[in-house]
């Protein structure tokens, strides 16, 4: 286990051992982590899942990602590696809202047929309505059933759901509402 600095003995460890020990030190079971919008979260989640498998730990690693992240090649490399290593303890939830910062996912980089692509990468694929709490609960319970395949959950969602001026509009992906827009959004959401 590392203590915050590396001494010569630790540097002599194989690279694989260093990475695994570092992961163990930084991320205990049950902790959360954010990787930002650069599609690095799935690669990190694969590392956490691999470390848990090597240590014979019996917990799942969840990665929540947006569909726009699937434009990045790193994501598909992580998908391939997770399948190769049979990381059945990995569950990737993909927010399939069809919008990213600059427009729709289909305009920028078409993802369909997404389910078929994930299946071809040897993943188990589930789908759910990302706005239905009962369906979310049931799908995630199903995703945790033991398997040797990583699980992708495609969560079909509507960005800005329930707010008339935000719903399905890509410009709200990174825009902050002003005071009047905030009040209107809260009024509309309270009517649901």
UniProtKB/TrEMBL annotation:
Pfam families: Transketolase_N. This is Transketolase N-terminal domain-containing protein. It comes from Candidatus Beckwithbacteria bacterium CG2_30_44_31. Keywords: Thiamine pyrophosphate. The keyword Zinc does not apply. Residues 29-186 form the Transketolase N-terminal domain. Belongs to the transketolase family. Gene3D superfamilies: 3.40.50.970. Its cofactor is thiamine diphosphate. It comes from the Bacteria.
């Amino acid at each position: 286990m590392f203590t915050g600095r590396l001494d010569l003995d630790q540097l002599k460890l194989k690279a694989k051992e260093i990475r695994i020990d570092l992961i163990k030190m930084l991320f205990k079971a049950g902790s959360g982590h954010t990787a930002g919008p650069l599609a690095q979260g799935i690669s990190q989640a694969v590392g956490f899942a691999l470390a848990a498998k090597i240590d014979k730990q019996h917990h799942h690693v969840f990665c929540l990602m947006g569909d726009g992240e699937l434009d990045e090649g790193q994501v598909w490399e992580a998908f391939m590696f997770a399948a190769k290593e049979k990381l059945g303890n990995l569950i990737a939830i993909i927010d399939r809202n069809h919008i990213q910062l600059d427009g729709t996912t289909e305009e920028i980089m078409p993802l369909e047929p997404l389910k078929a692509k994930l299946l071809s990468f040897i993943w188990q694929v589930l789908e759910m309505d990302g706005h239905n709490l009962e369906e979310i609960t049931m799908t995630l319970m199903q995703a945790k059933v033991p398997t040797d395949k990583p699980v992708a959950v495609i969560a079909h969602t509507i960005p800005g759901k329930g707010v008339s001026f935000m719903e399905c509009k890509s410009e709200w992906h990174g825009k902050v509402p002003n005071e009047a827009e905030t009040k209107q959004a809260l009024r509309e959401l309270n009517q649901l």
